[in-house]
Amino acid sequence: MGLLKKKEKKTSSKMSARMAGGASGSQISSLRPRYVESLPPCTGNCPSGNDIRGWLTIISLREKLGLSLDEACEQAWRIEMETNPFPSVMGRVCPHPCETGCNRGQKDGPVGINSIERFIGDYALDHDLKVAPLDDEAPKDQKIAVVGAGPSGLSCAYQLARRGYKVTVFEGLPKPGGMLRYGIPVYRLPREILDGEIQRILDLGVELKCDTKIGKDVSFDDIRKDYDAIYVAIGAHQGKNMGIPGEEGPGIWTGTEFLNHANSGKKVEIGTNVVVIGGGDTAIDAARVSKRLIADSAAMASKLGAEVTILYRRTRAEMPAIDREIDEAIEEDVKIEYLAAPIEILRDDEGALKAMVVQRMELGEPDDSGRRRPVPIEGDTYELPLETMITAVSQKPDLAAMKSKELGDGWLNGDDWGFTGVDGIWTGGDNINLGIATTSIGQARKAADAIHAHLQGTDLPNEANGDMIRAEKLKVDWYEPIDRTQREVKSPEDRLAKPFDEVDLGVTDEDALIECTRCFSCGKCFGCENCWMYCQNNVFAKVTPATPGNFFSIKKMEVCDGCKKCWEECPCGYIVGE
């Protein structure tokens, strides 16, 4: 078990590619090997830019590198913390686009990167690991303001504090975390996990001012005067209404408003018939939280007909929510009616919700999103009883509340480095465009790089990572088959019996270590020894002590005769011929 698969050494015949006299040096082969590190698709598909291959292989190759398990886990965590200060959080809530392009998917399933990320993050919390300022960065006099303590704002503060800047984070809500705290339910993200990773950032000296609204408690103009740079990351906490008859009045919530109340511990009266509109993560979270509020009340749960229904105007195939979350909602008896949209809300004489009129839809031609547009089926409507409606159709930022003429009152725009075009102001996160938390974290890191370069008068860092290596450049069959480890998830009965306990239990420590060994180490040496074993002319030498990606050196290029065996037999595609 592991990355290495032993093979017998083979004796190759001379190939036509060899140049006459290659071994004697009279001529030089054009097929001599070179080491070329390539970008693995996991990192290429990670919006945070995490060195995923780096932290997977530091664990799987720990014995070759002379590391204990504890040393390897800590080093893996520190590699991830270079780009993402929330590994334990992201290991729970990220939809892991990194796994989508994983080359292991061409064999027996992509590596469970997200599960290992959670393992690494939890290890650090369990062992109280700390981060420190960067060794080569002295404390700096410049002050930086971060507006918003969500994943983007806190990540930017983290990256700048590591460089020695004085950072103050302003947050309008009572606690930090943004949508991680007020949007994601506790059964998906336990608050002690979120609090632990936030505290680690604050321990770097970041000053946090909660219950401080810019534009109300502090003016934006004052921040402009007092700080050398500003990073705006207020998110998009304003939900949108449907704009249909009967929507004004009691019993109607936006998805963000509902989740904010529920996640804040406020009392939420929803009755026993809840209808959620939308197909994204907010809609699924709102429906599952509603199910838990009903289950948590014995009086409500016992009522005949208590149910939660999601209406989505397209089909399951078009739903943007995380597939696993949809499946778990269905397991919890959340009903989903596809190709359906509300067109009117009906109320009784006292103004209470009674029912909604639902329009049946069919899919037409694709719209700007690339998904087929839902088209009403004329005359096909029905009534659906309800006591509460939650609209989770979209969100927007509330920039107007900041009362800044420079920022306006719509969405913010930033270049690839988050610069708004307004001197001294950078931005990132959902106030640019709705996205996932890992995208916000990646935007924050790049903005921090840009702010640092601006304040120090240096160039922006080079973001080039080389060409992405695909499965066709690997020897996929060389690697041993290892089944992908599955995360343990509580049964629906257990979930609703303790509705606010964590649902996804992750993988065991042992399984996480095994899962690390499934990484192909695409485009970087992992010490398989093939080049050293297959080379008849003794071109390669073992490196002692080995370091990540550096297990062999090319010591005698002059004796290479261009047989190509080294790069033909390199499973990870690290060796290429000239």
What key attributes describe this structure?
5-stranded parallel beta sheet; Fumarate Reductase Iron-sulfur Protein, Chain B, domain 2; 19 strands; 578 residues; 4 domains; alpha/beta; FAD/NAD(P)-binding domain; disordered N terminus
Question: What's this entry about, in short?
Answer:
The chain has helices at 41-44, 52-60, 69-81, 87-93, 113-126, 151-162, 179-182, 191-202, 220-226, 255-263, 281-295, 298-301, 323-331, 437-456, 492-497, 509-516, 530-534, 565-568, and strands at 33-35, 143-147, 166-170, 207-209, 229-232, 238-239, 252-254, 273-277, 307-312, 335-338, 340-347, 353-366, 372-385, 388-391, 395-396, 425-427, 540-547, 550-554, 575-577. It has 18 helices and 19 strands.
Would you kindly provide a written description of the structure presented here, covering whatever features stand out?
The structure is a single chain. The protein has helices spanning 41-44, 52-60, 69-81, 87-93, 113-126, 151-162, 179-182, 191-202, 220-226, 255-263, 281-295, 298-301, 323-331, 437-456, 492-497, 509-516, 530-534, 565-568; strands spanning 33-35, 143-147, 166-170, 207-209, 229-232, 238-239, 252-254, 273-277, 307-312, 335-338, 340-347, 353-366, 372-385, 388-391, 395-396, 425-427, 540-547, 550-554, 575-577. Strands 4-3-2-5-16 form a 5-stranded parallel beta sheet, with helices on both faces. It is globular and about 95 Å long. With 578 residues, the chain is of the alpha/beta class. The protein folds into 4 domains: 1-37 and 524-578; 41-129 and 480-518, Orthogonal Bundle (Fumarate Reductase Iron-sulfur Protein, Chain B, domain 2); 143-237 and 405-456, FAD/NAD(P)-binding domain (3-Layer(bba) Sandwich); 240-395, FAD/NAD(P)-binding domain, CATH 3.50.50. The longest helix has 20 residues, at 437-456. The protein starts with 32 loop residues before the first strand and ends with a strand. The chain has 18 helices and 19 strands.
